[in-house]
Inverse folding.
């Protein structure tokens, strides 16, 4: 993770020196330490955001950060302050969606998210890029504009950018939307979260505030420890820059 945190510090350094940049969560001494020795302080971002306490492993965060930095270096993100991580290695009963604001150094959202009905029951296991599979797709996405669908209501379009893994997302109409089956009440009644047709569905009450923040050019990463994906992801296996 050392190389990726170093790049992140380079990207964020100008903002750190601006008044009111949103880095108030870090003391002046800690900011000085990060800039002076980013290698030694590589875990600060992860720890400052308390991601471990919220159930996100450092390994998953490192992968998400690697892809985010690559897309940022290629100027593919219109809004590079925000990173969304969906960790489908966890039970669907967990809050496994994380929205991080790098500028504010805050975890903005931590909520439930459903996987596809043919991806698995309580746990996600099977993934696909094929239309009609009703499975979730792994990898990195760039968020697009919001959309008002006739069936799911307010939602957000997602562009899958990894060939062979999620680049068919638009044709499959994979979007982020709200769903009554993506709620604590559904878990209490059924012992697990409900499932979608492959979309990352979230509780209805948070769909609009989440989309308002992450739409129009942010990075979104859907993770599962799939050996094929991790060894051949067009994003994760490419060098930064």
């Amino acid at each position: 993770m050392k190389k990726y945190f170093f790049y992140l510090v380079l990207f964020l350094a100008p903002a750190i020196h601006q008044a009111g940049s949103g880095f108030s969560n870090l003391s002046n001494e800690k900011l000085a330490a990060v800039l002076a020795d980013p290698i030694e302080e590589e875990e600060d971002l992860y720890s400052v955001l308390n991601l471990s306490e919220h159930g996100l492993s450092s390994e998953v965060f490192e992968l998400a950060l690697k892809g985010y930095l690559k897309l940022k270096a290629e100027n593919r993100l219109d809004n590079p302050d925000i990173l969304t991580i969906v960790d489908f290695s966890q039970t669907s009963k967990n809050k496994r969606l994380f929205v991080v604001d790098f500028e504010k150094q805050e975890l903005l959202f931590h909520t439930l998210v459903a996987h596809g009905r043919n991806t698995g029951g309580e746990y996600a296991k099977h993934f696909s890029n094929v239309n009609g599979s009703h499975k979730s797709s792994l990898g990195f996405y760039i968020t697009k504009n919001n959309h008002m669908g006739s069936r799911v209501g307010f939602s957000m379009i997602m562009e899958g950018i990894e060939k062979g893994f999620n680049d068919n997302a638009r044709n499959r109409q994979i979007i982020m939307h709200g769903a009554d089956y993506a709620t604590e009440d559904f878990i209490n009644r059924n012992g697990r979260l409900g499932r979608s047709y492959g979309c990352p569905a979230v509780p209805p009450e948070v769909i609009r505030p989440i989309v308002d923040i992450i739409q129009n050019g942010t990075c979104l990463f859907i993770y599962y420890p799939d050996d094929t994906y991790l060894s051949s992801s067009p994003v994760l296996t490419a060098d930064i820059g």
Notes: Residues 157 and 175 are 5 Å apart (CA to CA). The longest strand covers residues 139-149. Confidence is low (pLDDT under 50) at residues 1-28, 30-43. The chain has seven helices and eight strands.
